[in-house]
Amino acid sequence: MRAGKVSSLLLAGFLGAVSAVVAVVVTHLPVLHDKLHIPNALVECVKLYGVFTLLFFAVMFPLGASIDRSLARLHGVPGDQDHAGGSAPRSRIARWINPLLRAFDAAIECYRRDQARLRDELQSVENSRRAIETTRRHSEAVLHTLRDVVIVTDDQDRVVMLNGAAAQLFDLDAEAASGRPVADVIPQPRLCRLIHRTRQAGGHRAVCQDEIVVSRPAESGGGKAPAEATFEACLMCVEHGGRPGGVVAVLHDLTRERELLSLKTDFISKASHELRTPLSSIRAYIEMLIDGEARDDAARQQFYAIVHEEADRLARLIDNLLNVSRIEAGIVNVHRERLAVKSVILDAVHALTPTARERGIALINAAAGGADLEVDADRDMLHEVMVNLISNALRFTPAGGSVTIDAARDAARGEAVITVADTGPGIPVEAQQRVFEKFFRLDRGEARAAGTGLGLTVCKHIVESLHEGRIGVDSAPGAGARFWFSLPDRSQPARSAA
Amino acid sequence: MMHDDARPDRRILIVDDETHILQVLSLKLRNAGYEVFTAMDGEEALEVVRQSRPDLVITDFQMPIMTGLELCRAMAADPASAEIPVLMLTARGYSLSDRDLAIGNIRHVVHKPFSPRAILEMVRTLLIDAEAAPARKREDAA
């Protein structure tokens, strides 16, 4: 068995020598070394291993025969007789072999350590690669979900990347555009010139800003004509090794912002006009009273009444302005509860009966004997809708006329429909769609002055935005107006169950 | 309340769709001794201008049917009314450009809320100026 081990060692020594020769050849032939991609540490280990085995081979070869003989003797003659004679050669061999074995162990241990280190390094490189890949995907997702248009070009003004918004705006295939000159891909000479100029100007962090107008492509199937959109363009040169490497252009659409700004300005302008109107009356009448322009007590009383009425109107207007803006901003709390439609109507009719009597108008509650409708709604808000609709009807109805409130079930839609019909002059067809707009006024003489221009807007917001209902008006000039609103009828399931 | 310098033959047209404004200005000017006509929109006002030949027009800017500016344009287009001075009342001063004001014979723009007292003062000054203007014209011609 020991003879076998020594023979194996000799064989290993021989193989080691061959490996060492190969390692030396590989190391000294750089072309071969580069092609095979053998780690330097491995080559060093093989060389070390080779040197040791060469030494071993050189020493062991001349002694091979005697070692073999000694080992054969050791193996072949067991027992106490040869014990004393055999111990001397065995210890001599051990003296030779043990250091060599220790050297082998050291070399193998060194190799293992190098291998483990390389494995760790490889793992670390793989982790970094995965992290970079994840970051790249995140960045791509961000770029492609941006509403802003992003165009990246290289040092030759060729497209490197276009995001989804860019492809949509310029109606092109982002993949196909990659690598092509930007001027050939993007039909915006002004933008292409900006990109070129930004690259030529160079300088990292130097941002070029400008406004450009782009024609949007017609929406497919929407039938919309191409529209012009204004973009704010921000361009930045990206440097590579101190030289201009390319340009990143970001285009931000200003169209919607400008529209909103215009709407806001218009709203403020109209609101301030509406606020000034009652304020003008209040100020003028007070000054008239101070200047003693009212000739008698009756005139003075009339002036006081006008000031009082206009102050009320101002307060109503401010309330409505706040209500509209709060509903539009979505900061209104709706306290829903099950309400009987009859009781809501009755409350509103009670509140406005004195006004109707004062103006000589009959206020008729036709819903009193009707169906027991129920809705889920905010009591105060529904009351406001009712009061606004009835007040409006009273304002436009001449003395001797009537305002009728009714409620009915629309079984087909599952809705409770409440109507307020007057015997006033009616609303022209072209104005019917606009009566719910902010500050839209019908030019109907004195009645116009008393309103705030927001009452119906508030009604529409309460019914449609906050209660999932519908609101509308039916009218024919000269035949009065019939305002109606409907809310989901909650009494229906109970009735069908019964 | 009759003021010494107000000649009763002076006629003033007030145009506004707000009844309170019409009422307050009418009273102020009538108390000052002027003859006052009223109209609630531009079209009605133009009719009064043609029939009654007022010496001065006070008009609101924003009115239904025909705005104050359109009324001024219509008045300027007719030689019979082109020289009538106009005092414009507005709740939206910023929407009147210099070009708008150059049209017609707009002498003053008064922003709401206004003082009836100040309006009366302006009316007096404008009427005195308007009276002096034809005399000046005659002198220039001579």
Radius of gyration of chain A: 48 Å
The multimeric state of the shown protein is: heterodimer
Overall geometry of chain A comes to elongated
Number of helices of chain A: 16
Number of domains of chain B: 1
DSSP summary, beta strand count of chain A: 12
Strand content of chain B: 15-25%
Kindly state the mean pLDDT of chain A as a whole number?
Answer: 83
Please write the string of helix (H) and strand (E) elements of chain B: EHEHEHEHEH
Tally of discrete structural domains of chain A: 4
Strand content of chain A: 15-25%
Secondary structure tally: strands of chain B: 5
What series of H and E elements makes up the topology of chain A? Answer: HHHHEEHHHHEEEHHEHEEHEEHHHEEH
**Spatial order of strands in the largest sheet of chain B:** 2-1-3-4-5
> Pair with the most extensive interface?
A-B, 24 and 25 residues
* Continuous helix count of chain B: 5
CATH superfamily of the largest domain in chain A: Histidine kinase-like ATPase, C-terminal domain
- The H-level CATH homologous superfamily of chain B, spelled out, is Response regulator
Q: If strands are numbered along the chain, what order do they take across the biggest sheet of chain A?
A: 2-1-5-4-3
